Amino acid sequence: MAGEPEQEEERTGLEESAEDPAEELTAQVTGGVLYLVATPIGHRGDLSPRARAVLAAADVVAAEDTRHTGRLLASLGIHRRLESFHEHNEAAATPRLIAHLKSGRSVALASDAGTPGLSDPGFVLVRAAVAEGIVVSAVPGPTALIAALTVSGLPTDAFTFTGFLPPRSGRRRRVLEGLAELPHTLVFYESPYRLAATLADLLAVLGDRPMAVCRELTKRFEEVRRGPLSELAAFYATSKARGEFTLVVAGAKAGLHKWPHTS
User: Fold this and answer.
1) Which of 139, 165, 189 is the endpoint of a domain?
2) Are residues 158 and 134 in the same domain?
């Protein structure tokens, strides 16, 4: 309305669209903005055009593993300044990246695979950026969490994601006891080295219920095994697990009567 002051909007480089799609992509990076860039969890074709453009144009790319991200960028013909940012150095690296942002540089944060901040480094940096009034912009894309949930065949309207469960059985079971009565779907990440033990603990604490074990999603040896938890626990107790796993488990009182056997 006339006479009212205009509200200042956060500038992320998305406010205006150029007629040329290429110009629009290069215009999406703004100085002083932290971009959270989702990268492929397996298939490189899943990297979005916008993610590629942001990685190509950012002043600094903060990477969980500079070698891994460097190879990804090289395969795309992108050469940018890479700085290390992982769980072991994020306390020390965060002030440095905040300094870049406050000086007007754009920073793109990328994990090895998937979305930064979801069972990957990112939260500490985002919290610090928000506290400093720095704009944080998501460049959404692949995440094993959503990929597994949507292909599982289990309800997707509500779910709880806890990332990786504790490595030791005692603590793992205590965490599961706190989740046992939740009525909605549960999602976990797990290492192949702990898969059999984790499935045994899931069965012991949660009881037999439908679940899906998703392995190597979007990769060459992608596999989804669905069935009662008891059957899947028995299968992996005697089968060598390889690759990266996402476990999707039905909520409490889901019942098994409509669930097929292991497939």
Assistant:
1) 139
2) no
Same domain for 58 and 106, yes or no, is: yes
Question: Is 1's pLDDT higher than 90?
Answer: no
Which residue is listed with tokens 């309305």? 1
- The alpha carbon dihedral of 247, 251, 252, 258 has a sign of negative
Domain boundary among 139, 159, 181: 139
Res. 2: pLDDT tops 70: no
d(CA 44, CA 51): 12
Residue 261 predicted with pLDDT over 90: no
> Measured in Å, how far apart are the chain's first and last C-alpha atoms?
61
Please tell me the distance from the alpha carbon of residue 203 to that of residue 14, in angstroms, as a whole number: 47
Helix spans in 86-168 (H): 90-102, 123-131, 144-151
Give the chain's length: 263
Average pLDDT over residues 101-118: 95
DSSP assignment string, 207-233: -S-EEEEEESTTSTT-EEEEEEHHHHH
Side chain identity at residue 118, one-letter code: L
Q: Is 90 helix (H, G, I), strand (E, B) or coil?
A: helix
CATH number of the domain encompassing residue 219: 3.30.950.10
Q: Which domain holds residue 101?
A: 22-139
Q: How far is CA 25 from the centre of its chain?
A: 23
Distances (CA, A) of 222 to 110, 209, 217, 218: 23, 23, 5, 6
Domain contains 195 = yes
